[in-house]
Write a structure and sequence with these properties.
about 375 residues; mainly alpha; 17 helices; about 80% helix; globular
Length: about 375
Amino acid sequence: GELWVSEGTPVGVTRGKMSETRRRKPKSQEKGFSRRSGRENGKKDNVDERKKEIVKQAAVQMAENMLNWKTVNVLVGLLVCLYMGSKWGLQMRLLHENDMFFSEIKEVEREISFRTEAGLYYSYYKQLVEAPTYMEGIHSLIADNITEHQRTINIIKRFNIHQEIVLGTFYRLFPWKHLVQPIYFYIDTVFSLYGLFGMAMFLTAWLLSGTWMSGVLAMLFVFFNRSEVTRVYFTMALRESFAFPFIYMQVGLTALYMKQTHKDLVQRLLLVGIGVTTMAFVIAWQFAQFVLLLQAFALYAVQIVGVVPKQKIKNLFLIHIGSLLLVFILQFGNPMVLQSLVLSFIGASLLVFTIQVVTIQRYDVCKFNSPCATARRMR
């Protein structure tokens, strides 16, 4: 039968107990195991922390690389903008030289080359430059008895010749009289403005699309269709030759103002830039009011659709009104400015905005004080 040990315990039972005792570990070993597990957990925590640090460093490095790439991209875009704008102005100057042989003809022939009313505008610049004193030149423009027979008129009020006054002032003040002839100073300034025209168009396309490649594409279209874009290379003294660069600057600043939400200081600076470029555009060209009228139509439509907040459109309209009034003052009260269609339309639009606000406020008050609303509040 079965083998029995002392105290009547079966051998099989004794072996089972002994195996259990063998399986059980002493307390010292259990403590060692817990220490090992704690060390392993600590090592895991350290590994996790290191991984997190590595991920953070990689993210920071990627952000720095992206920032560096954006910076390089912006710098390359600005360099391309500067190159294409200057190339556009130099191209216009080269076309003018090839068409007129301007550098090879006499001074009288150069003045004769100014076609249509361009010669009249240039004559006022020459009159200011060749006057004995600067104040005598200004007075001769304010009280001119040569342009119209038997009448003394104010040329500054009658025509848009502030650009000729500015150029004549710069030519008389700065010491380059003996370095460049007055006529070359005049035409080179116009072609330089057309360089700014190209840069403004490039930056506007870049701003609206988000990539400077759109600016390159826009300038290529301008290069290939220059006969439909400008007449500056054969009649550079026309009023639109001075005005076009400023309207493209104004459009770019307006798009930047409406596109994003900026800080108050940035918005004010943008509004100041819009006001200055609008004033320069209007004072340089007698037909600028019609371009501004089309722009006012577009701004009003954008406000109706709800794409741009109404307050921004109101600010732009107020800036336009201020620019027109400033031009009215600088032109000695030219009635054409006050009687312009754009000023009437902007005034009517602001009146409509005011009526809308008052109507909405009254509707809200009536809705709040209605019997149904009162009953709901009583409940």
